[in-house]
Structures are given as structure tokens and as C-alpha cells.
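Our preliminary data section would be incomplete without showing what the modeling component actually yields. Below, a chain of 195 amino acids is followed by its predicted structure, encoded as C-alpha cells that our downstream tools consume directly.
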Amino acid sequence: MTNPNKVILTDVDGVLLDWEYAFDVWMERKGYDIMISNVYDMAVKYDIEKSECKKLVRHFNESAWMEYLNPLRDSMKYVKKLHEECGYVFHVITSLSNDLYAQYLRTENLKNIFGDTVFEKFVYLDTGEDKDEALEAYWGTGCFWVEDKPENAILGNEKGLVAILMDHEHNRGQAEECTRVNSWKEIYEMAKITW
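Predicted structure:
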């Protein structure tokens, strides 16, 4: 493995890519209306049963849309800068799907946006799967761990990582023990201090 001081661990949806916007467009095309804005739980957002929501999220995550998600905020610019200027490589840990074709499309999407050399490793977990085991491999390394889900950020802290929570309205007031950022520019500035 690359020097852990030069590895950034990152989630994808809500961190590198704008999954929620794409999902909302997809749901609208399926005839669903947003009932409550600014919530992370899609079952609540669309006022549907949790079991139906899980099926819809899995269906979306295994669709061709995975090759075409847009970058989140300034991720494209500053992830490339972290890689090209500072020498960082990225290891993706994402709860997408066990479907190999969905994983392939996600990999292609990331490479098309960020470049072929940015990502050194892709860890794909099933839809909604916990990240405990995946993060265990990095225990005590002090790598940056960029997440938008508070529970996963806290888990990273507990495993000896530097947890960075990407700010969203739905995660405010949570995981206060983690460093919160609004942009990849802030992560770039933090990383510059360490290289």
C-alpha cells in the first residue's frame, strides 16, 4: 500500500458526487414527489415505506445513472489538486451495491471526472452496508476519512482516522467531534499543512 500519510479515504455519495440530486431527478421521472425537503432519509423525504425506499435506492444504484453523476461542489478541482500537487491518492469506500456492473459504472464515472490516476483502490459494499470492516484495514493510520454520514465519520475517529464530515443540512448538529467542512478546498488547505 502507498504511504498512509499520502492516502485519503473517501465516501462517494454526498462527498465526491451529488447522488441526492440525481436520485431526486430519477424519482421525479418515476412519478414520486418530494414531501419533506432537507432530510437524508429518502423514505421520509418521499413519504414512502422503508421497504419500498430500499428497493428504489438499490434499483437506482444499479442503474446506468451511476456512470453520470455530477461532482459535488468543488470536488473535481480540489481532489485533482490534492493528487497532482500534493501527491495524495484516494481509496474509495462506498455502500453502492454488490452488482459488478454498477461498480464498474461508478468506477468509470469517478475516473471520467477525476482522472485515471487519482484512485488507487475501490472498496464496494452492498447498498446501505456498514463500513466497519472496510475501515478496520486502516485502523490507526491517521488517514483522512471524508464522509457525509455522521455515524461513519464517528466510526472513522474511533478507528484512529482523521474524520472529516462534509457539511449538509441533514447532518448539522451531529458528529461535533469530527472536523466539519463545506468544501474540498478546506480539505486541500488542511492537507497542504501535512505535506
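The chain has two domains: 4-18+70-194, 19-67. The chain has eight helices and six strands. Preliminary results of this kind motivate Aim 1 of the renewal.
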